[in-house]
Design a protein that fits this description.
Order of helices and strands: EHEHHEHEHEHEHHEHEHH
Structural class: alpha/beta
Strand order of the largest sheet: 1-2-3-4-5-6-7-8
Low-confidence stretches: none
CATH class: Alpha Beta
Mean pLDDT: 98
Bound molecules: SN-glycerol-3-phosphate
Length: 218
């Protein structure tokens, strides 16, 4: 499973990238707004830090303008992936960008049929939003299950399932069990994945006992 960070905060990204487990980044207009910084500068800095795919979202609503924006964003760095919404115009833009050899992440996916259409349009990634479905009392993880099953029926589709709108570590566990290819995780939640009180307790005991031996490895 690949781990992406769902953030545009360069300090948060740098701290996690330093661990060597970050495969890519996803951003969206809300995450950019939260930084209070210029979009292009932020994306340039992220792409300099992360070698894997970095999603940057268009803000136009018509396909032709989405493609124009996508071509501009694509010039930032070779690893930029263009994020378009799961709308008819977004799917049209996806197909047009795909035909030009540009990677596309189809976002705001809330149904398996939207995911099917995105795969047909050549999306590199489909981003089903788990948490936002849970928010309206629908089973977000069932959507991942459906997409895994549908894509499994059609090996000609190479679209990767990028589980998004992750709200807690249990979402990560369930997405991994469901077979999502990628999960994009807010920094705070990614840090939570490391935590277990028995790890802290056990390590403390080991270090105390080692100290008593008076030895050192280096
Ligand atoms: O990148 C999009 C997505 O992960 C948004 O998450 O928490 O705003 O629903 P959230």
């Amino acid at each position: 499973m690949k781990f992406f960070i769902d953030s545009a905060n360069i300090d948060d990204i740098r701290a996690l990238a330093d661990l060597g487990i970050v495969d890519g980044i996803t951003s969206n207009p809300t995450l950019i707004a939260q930084t209070g910084r210029p979009f292009f500068k932020v994306m340039e800095e992220i792409c300099a830090l992360i070698q894997g795919p970095v999603s940057a979202e268009v803000t136009a609503i018509e396909a032709e303008q989405m493609v124009q924006e996508g071509l501009v964003l694509h010039k930032i760095a070779p690893n930029i992936v263009i994020k378009v919404p799961s709308t008819p115009q977004g799917i049209k833009a996806c197909k047009m960008l795909h035909d030009q050899g540009i990677k596309v992440n189809v976002t705001l996916c809330f149904s398996a049929l939207q995911a099917l259409i995105a795969a047909k349009a050549g999306a590199t990634f489909i981003s089903p939003f788990i948490g936002r479905l849970d928010d309206i009392n629908q089973d977000g993880m069932a959507l991942i299950d459906d997409i895994v099953q549908i894509y499994g029926n059609y090996p000609e589709y190479s679209t990767e399932i990028l589980a998004a709108s992750i709200r807690h570590p249990y979402h990560v566990l369930l997405a991994a069990k469901a077979g999502a290819d990628i999960i994009t995780v807010p920094p705070k939640i990614l840090w939570q994945l490391f935590q277990h009180p028995l790890t802290d307790k056990g390590l403390s005991q080991f270090l105390d006992d080692w100290k008593k031996t008076g030895q050192s490895i280096l």
